[in-house]
Amino acid sequence: MDALELVRLNLLSPMVLGFALGIVAALVKSDVKLPEALHSGLSAYLLLAIGLKGGIELGKAPLGELSGPLIATLAVGLTSPLWCFATLRGLGKLGVADAAAIAAHYGSVSVVTFTACGTFLDAAGVAYEGFMSALVAFLEVPAIIVAIFLARRTTAGTAHWGETLREVVFGKSNLLLLGGVAIGALSGPAAEQVKPFFVDPFRGALTLFLIDMGVLAARRLGDLRATGGFLVAFALLMPLVNGAIGALVGDLAGLSLGGTTVFATMVASASYIAAPVAVRIALPEANPALYLTSSLALTFPFNLTVGIPVYHAIARWLHA
Amino acid sequence: MPDPLPTVALKRVTIVGEAVLETRLVALIRAAGAKGFTRLACSGEGSRGVRASDWEGANVKLETLVSPAVADAILSALARDYFEHFAVVAYVDEVHVVRGDKYI
Asked: How are strands ordered across the β-sheet holding B88-98?
């Protein structure tokens, strides 16, 4: 399949089109917006379903096959906030708290971007390791902790480490994701019982969720004025840098072509569910308009439309 | 006409804040000595506008009926921990509460 065909395949998926519909809805000031409880319920459903899927595959995978990718995940999770932070401080001249807050988001992972990559590969007929979603759970947390540590090393204010760790590790998103992985891995073949609810309607639910994400992202566009040119460039270029690093590391860790694409996408993506909550509490002096607008209104749509096919192209090039 | 029920004058402290703060605000009013509270999910706009999380919801509104001393303690703790960096509104009014002795 040539590159153009892959881009077309990605852009015209129901999920991406759903996201676009959400943006249009917000721009024309339509009243499309899921009730808060449904939005929150849908994200819980998606997180649990993704964890479950990864857990079932994790139960089947031999431990040896997993160690390389797992080490790679932790290594990237611990180091990517460092170079993001250095870039934001050095080139962007951002304050310590803001730079650390943004680094936490870009070091962590967006579960929805990950899922979009999976559906892209399914449509393109490229296989990938089923345990990747278990790795998402392991990529989500370390970066947030490293970034908060970076900020608290030099700034006054207490980090409340116990509370922060509890927030990140046992926060809704990580607990549901890891909980899903555990349920899937432990129940094994018995997980078939919940398939009609968690697997088959998954993409429909994701499309609905993405419409809502589009509305939320478009609402943040107004905040772009506050973010400044550097952050816009950062939000669009950093994913490419991180994606290329992710592809390289994923390839070295022994992942397949599909797995490398997924890993690159994970590393390129920026969190907007787990990180904002943890960062808001641990680094209250950081400006939410900066970290949320860049991750939700810029990086997320960028990865969804352009990023994923690009990371796939890099992975293909590495595997050639 | 039956006699009107006796009431007690109390302070009603209302706090509207970012939803991410919910558990912390509840802990704060509990620690200050409040015996209970009412919680509402709500949304609105103010000078800050930006919320850290749409996943946690927009705002939370907490109301508690307390003695004047506890009301002061709640407001000082709020001012100390949250007013600087978070979107938090707090106000106090006097209310006349039936069975008011339950709350002090």
From this structure: B38-42, B59-66, B7-18, B88-98
